[in-house]
Amino acid sequence: xxxxxxxxxxxxxxxxxxxxxxxxxxxxxxxxxxxxxxxxxxxxxxxxxxxxxxxxxxxxxxxxxxxxxxxxxxxxxxxxxxxxxxxxxxxxxxx
Length: 95
Prior knowledge:
Elements: E1 4-12, H1 18-31, E2 35-39, E3 53-59, H2 62-70, H3 72-84, E4 85-93
Antiparallel strand pairs: 1-3, 1-4, 2-3
Helix pairs in contact: 1-3
């Protein structure tokens, strides 16, 4: 089975409140077995719009990645994230 990945370029607009989103998304990520491949850290956007945070999250399957996003747990966290940041976000199937 191919893995699924969340890929995001995030522009944090309220860095003081953003940790609320990080705390809130833990329930969904724990439930669906999310593993962070990239979570912040040093990086450079070489083409396209800049972002303050780059994230790649791995799931055991593409379906699991979709299920996590659509879960009530993550949707509650997402409502917070939208208050504190904007993002370019995709869910993709691995090779």
